[in-house]
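Work Package 3 (structural annotation) set out to generate three-dimensional models for the target panel prioritized at the project kickoff. During this period the team completed the workflow that converts sequence records into discrete structure tokens, so that structures can be stored uniformly alongside our sequence database. As a representative example, we reproduce one entry of 483 residues exactly as it appears in the project archive.
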Amino acid sequence: MKLKKLVKDIYEDNSSLPLIDIKKICTHSSEASKNSVFVAVKGFTKDGHDYIDEAIRKGASAIISDSKNLDFFPVPNIKVKDSKLALSRIASKYYNHPSRDLNIVGITGTNGKTTTASILNSIFKANGYNTAQLGTIGTITDLYQTTKTLTTLDPINLHRKFRDFINERITHIVMEVSSHALDQSRVADVDFDICAFTNLSREHLDYHHNMENYFLAKAKLFKMLKPSNIAIVNYDDNMGSRIAKASKAKVISISKNKNTKIYLSEISHDISGIKFVVNHNGKQTPINSSLIGEYNIENILCAFSIALSFGIEPKVIQKGVEQCDFIPGRMELFNLKNGAKVIVDYAHTPDAYEKVLNTIKNIKMEKSQLYVLFGCGGDRDKDKRSEMGLIAEKYSNKMWITPDNPRTENILDINNDIIRKIKKNDFETFTDRGKALELAINNLTEGDILVVLGKGRENYQEIDGKKVFYSDIEIIQGFINAN
């Protein structure tokens, strides 16, 4: 695409630009080459403007930067007010606005995004749609599954992937939308059809600084919607009504009570799964799911409501929910040969801890011991660490406190933050998560339950800026195979 055409919507004075044929857009100077445009974006720890000279040395044919006072460059320097937004604009344009030709659902909230997306993806497939799911567990289609990336991709990779989906005849996309992505304009040019809000609780305050900023980031998704779009909003969360008011779209309110458009009745759940009735448009649809946990009722309801908004028949929705029998790394159950159980869950917020552990406490056998293995991430919100420690203490008979992506922080400091307010001496701290997990599993006897929180199906630990291979699942499965 010619440079003039590419930047037409972000740069008014493009008449003086040379006739350069752009074949690549990049934000990393190492990826710059001839006929590429380098977009200088300020990140959380690094500023792309500091790498402009390197990008030019690598062959970049043009630069897009913000309004900073920069030196003269031997290639065109297109100055814009917001280079992150400019990146979104040109990425969509370069790939010919692919999101306009797809049916796209965006799901946001602190917890439940992956589970809701997975259930909805199962319903879509039950209805015969060619689908793709994008989020924390990667990109999932019937054609391939990629490894874990950012919850929401950067604009270049996102719009490139949308174009690939169209070429692969995929029609329906279910994607998780993170608060970081919304704040950084990664999805500013995605043409969403339906967006859903699950809930809001403490998370990412190292980035957003306070809950109000966190809420405002989430609300951006719903402000993007047009009157012809649909917003599915969980009114059981106290931020639901604020989300609804922020949007011009048609709002479909959902909850577990009768005060919303779609609501539930006859709810029951135990170790075998969930049952309830969805009340919608004067009709009732019974739902059976093998997923466990009261909080998954909200996730199923959200997926049900999105599918219904697409015009999918309730019988098909029932089938799709039933076929989604587990979510990788979300309340994933492993039965040991000695009669004990290990449950793996990605929970890494106080709210998620409360929901997961309360669920397990209520469904376990009366005399069973409940153990919890967990840690907290480094270089992230430190104030939530002691809160998570107290929640784990409340529900467990013993805690195994371990690393969970310590990043550049000292693991001993993180562990001390976790145990700071704990009053019982029912815990052990470790600097090696693998050794702690092996010890905890070997400690289990018949009827005991070990809950392993934080990493889900991640296969690495982030330590000192490097990703080191590590898998809770592999250790658990290895123990089962050996015993």
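The longest strand covers residues 262-270.
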